[in-house]
Prior knowledge:
- This protein is α+β, with helices and mostly antiparallel strands.
- The protein folds into four domains: 36-44 and 294-413, no CATH class; 49-59 and 205-290, Elongation Factor Tu (Ef-tu), domain 3; 62-93 and 171-204, CATH 2.40.50.100; 94-169, Helix hairpin bin (Helix Hairpins).
- The protein has five helices and 20 strands.
- Helix 2 runs antiparallel to helix 3 and helix 4 (307-319) packs antiparallel against helix 5.
- The longest helix has 36 residues, at 95-130.
- It is elongated and about 175 Å long.
- 21% of the residues are buried.
Amino acid sequence: MKRRTQAVAAAVLLVAAAAAALWWQQRPPPKQIDKYRTVLVDRGPITQVVMATGTLQPVTTVNVGTQVSGTVLERFADFNDRVKRGQVLLRLDPANLQARLRQALAQAASAEAGLALARATLERNRRLLEQNFISALALDQNQREFDAARANLEVARAQVDAAQTDVNNSVIRSPIDGVVIRRNVDVGQTVAANFQTPELYLLARDLREMQIHTNVSEADVGMVKAGQAVRFTVDAFPDAEFEGQVEQFRLNSTTTQGVVTYNIIVRVDNSDERLKPGMTAQTRIVLQSKPDVLRVPTASLRFQPDDDERKAMAVAAAATAPRAGDKSAAPVVAAAAAASAASAAAPVSGDDGVLTRTRGGQRVFRVYTVGPGPAQVPQPHEVTVGISNTRYTELASVLSGSVKAGDALITRRADAPGAGR
Length: 421
């Protein structure tokens, strides 16, 4: 009985050992931990834009001021009122101006009387000179007095005109058909025009046509041209997107803390008048757009291997180098790949680090794919690119290596901050 029990136990152990061996042979291979985050190369559309923040403004604005000083007596226009050209906006108290006008009129009347007396004296003395009762010198004196009296009358009349103009200017009228954007005065307020013209109203000609004044960095203005489409949003309507068009590139630059920007004017159709002056617009100026190109992730152009990865790339390049005397095609391909890897792994003699990155007028970039095997050594590929945005970049040509649709390009290391996002 004891031997039988031992035999059964041995059989059970043998079956368990056989099952364990079978499981060990058929178990899935351990999952390889990826060292890099990658994004696939694909085909699709790319739109290159310039982002800028601007302010909506009317196309034409007019500051309405006053040429005379006085106290506001009446006001006939307020905020948001629509006014016509010549319409009275406000009146200043004309009492002082009318007093100066009466004074000028009185001085003009006195000058007319003096001129009449000088004319009569001159005519009488001419007859006396013909009868030799006075000398020619006395007549010349009378002529001078007549000319002076006539000049005094002209001065007095000019003063009357100036005083009358001041009285007329006490009535402020609208110079255009438009809308009152801003009002800076009220009834009873005193305005002084002695040193500078005070601003009473700000009028906008037509709010159905608006402009966006944006500041674009000097790095982007080289591609901005009149007529390019613009898309923008405003905080007042977060779910709506509006369209405009680049109207003007102004050459007058602005430098703020060493940053040079240029003013770009965008024309906007505001037929429904939803957009208001002063709104902040988040604009995207469409520079170029292509519907179907081979595109790579923009982040892959910024990836650079560290020193350890460069050493691994140099070792891999040496391992794939062709052997002496081998004339088959495979070593030739391996040699090209090794040369590309070696150029990325170690500095090239005479490479100044700047000029050699440009070939034929195009800037050369290196992108990397993950090499085979557990080592996952990055494999370099030299490419030139076309238009770009924050997500995608057009692949213009491949100078070395091979990059095609479906390839996974390294964008960052798996342990880099934010790699999991």
